[in-house]
Design brief:
Layout (H helix, E strand, L loop, with lengths): L2 H14 L3 E3 L11 E3 L1 H20 L4 E4 L7 H6 L2 H4 L1 E6 L6 E3 L29 E4 L2 E4 L9 E4 L4 H5 L2 H8 L5 E10 L14 E11 L4 H18 L7 E5 L11 E9 L2 E12 L1 H10 L5 E3 L4 E3 L2 E8 H12 E6 L2 E6 L10 E5 L6 H12 L5 E3 L5 H11 L3 E5 L1 H6 L1 E6 L5 E5 L3 H7 L2
Parallel strand pairs: 3-9, 19-20, 19-21
Antiparallel strand pairs: 1-2, 4-5, 4-6, 7-8, 9-10, 10-16, 11-12, 12-13, 13-16, 14-15, 17-18, 21-22, 22-23
This protein binds glycyl-adenosine-5'-phosphate.
Glycyl-adenosine-5'-phosphate (GAP) binds next to strand 10, strand 13, strand 16 and helix 9.
């Protein structure tokens, strides 16, 4: 399948089955902003749950946090975002389009007479590059003047740094320890695209691990390994995951070292998570700008220091897209094309479809009772319309790992057919064991 076709097919399936819709679609949409439908919100919630369990609940050394999106504007001066979170942009005076100065489609050097606009083709119409800040601005309070400017956070990390002492003291943690947070972030991206890969509003799953200076490299290596293991545990194809190390020139202003976990998308190898050694950059800057001491007193060593930070930063939307791309497949079955989302059962939006084979002989009643019992334990979908093969296919497209059918045998032997999405194999399971059977396989 050609790569562009795969993305087109996936976008269409996401809309058809209710994973992802264009934001404000009835008004023509809003650029690179997307809404999650009934199946999409389940998928993304499962991704976030799995992350939260691995990062917070399964560990004694990480605490959770939910900081506000709006923060004091000085935070973004201290973080370096006001001065440094910029992209160079050029405008075409002819067609009024705007591009990143390093857009590979631009021929020639922007600002020079021979430079050519990639959209209208006019020569000499591109302006000199100007720096453009990617943060969204808004105003706090009733007056819209420069004193009232606040930003929509471009990363969740800063909410963690400014709360680090609050969390440390209230949770009675000691260094090394971490703070984890999931939340929305906003970036006025100039070249967004590839569906939900790069959007202007997205969710981050970030964890900042505070360590003693000198132990940062060791922790950095540990976190690299743990994060890669987590992505593999979602069932992603291992050969489609790789590391990309940031060269010196690529490093963000805060980073001493950085590695990306990349996935091989149809549009190339791209970052899904970044692991950064941020040193003491953030806490030192917040200490300087706020005038508040952010040092840690290490009792065991009778030493005061500003902790170093190892950050793991993943996009929930990007991980959801990775799962969808990795799971999508088409197969020929009995002369028909079967579309399957082979999602790992743990992230699949619906865990089981429940079907009466026919709408008579008491099967709908039994299936409805079973459905109500199962939905107390995991997400289920009841479907009694159309041929059973069609109902299975609909669940295959939604990524549902198990199909449970109440049939003639159920009435006699109190067993149901459990059909497996990937192998399409069927087996008989006792009516009173279905819940346990599915749960064991999630
Ligand atoms: N706090 C560090 C930080 O924000 P980043 O590499 O800019 O680092 C981390 O972003 C992760 O956030 C990325 O790996 C990606 O998964 C996600 N992300 C960043 N920008 C995004 C965007 N415009 N749309 C969707 N996800 C994005």
């Amino acid at each position: 399948m050609a790569d562009t076709t795969l993305m087109d097919k996936l976008v269409s399936l996401c809309k058809r089955r209710g994973f992802v819709f264009q934001s404000s679609e009835i008004y023509g949409g809003l650029g690179s902003v997307w809404d999650y439908g009934p199946l999409g919100v389940e998928l993304k919630t499962n991704v976030k749950d799995r992350w939260w369990r691995a990062m917070v609940h399964a560990r004694d050394d990480i605490e959770g946090l939910d900081a506000a999106i709006l923060m004091h504007p000085k935070v973004w001066e201290a973080s370096g975002h006001v001065s440094g979170f910029t992209d160079p942009l050029v405008d075409c005076r002819q067609c009024k389009n705007r591009f990143r100065a390093d857009d590979p489609r631009i021929k020639g050097k922007p600002g020079q007479p021979d430079a050519q606009c990639p959209v209208c083709g006019t020569r000499g119409s591109l302006t000199e590059p100007r720096m453009f800040n990617l943060m969204f601005k808004t105003f706090m309070g009733p007056v819209e003047d420069s004193a009232a400017v606040v930003y929509l956070r471009p990363e969740t990390a800063q909410g963690i740094y400014v709360n680090y002492l609050n969390v440390l003291q209230s949770s009675r943690q000691r260094i090394p320890f971490g703070i984890a947070q999931i939340g929305k972030a906003f970036r006025n991206e100039i070249t967004p695209g590839n569906f939900i890969f790069r959007t202007r509003e997205f969710e981050q799953m970030e964890m900042q691990f505070f360590v003693q200076p000198g132990s940062d490299t060791e922790w950095f290596e540990r976190w690299r390994e743990w994060r890669m293991d987590w992505h593999r545990s979602l069932g992603l194809t291992p050969a489609k995951l790789q590391w990309h190390q940031h060269a010196g020139s690529e490093l963000a202003h805060y980073a001493r070292a950085a590695f990306d976990i990349e996935y091989q998308f149809p549009f190339g190898w791209q970052e899904i998570e970044g692991i950064h050694n941020r040193g003491d950059f953030d806490l030192s800057r917040h200490q300087e700008y706020s005038g508040k001491k952010l040092e840690y007193f290490d009792q065991a060593q009778n030493q005061r220091y500003i902790p170093y930070i190892v950050e793991t930063s993943a996009g929930a939307d990007r991980v959801a897209l990775t799962l969808l791309v990795d799971a999508y497949r088409e197969e020929e079955v009995e002369g028909e094309t079967r579309v399957v989302l082979g999602l790992s059962p743990s992230v699949a939006p619906i865990k089981a479809g429940v079907f009466p084979l026919v709408k008579k002989d008491g099967m709908p009643e039994l299936a409805t009772t079973l459905y109500h019992e199962l939905r107390r334990q995991f997400t289920c979908f009841y479907d009694d319309s159309g041929a059973i093969g069609r109902r299975y296919r609909r669940m295959d497209e939604a990524g549902t790992p198990f199909g449970v059918t109440v049939d003639g045998e159920t009435l006699v032997a109190r067993t149901v057919t459990v059909r497996h999405r990937d192998s399409m194999q069927q087996e008989r399971v006792g009516l009173d064991r279905v819940g346990e059977y599915v749960r064991e396989r999630l």
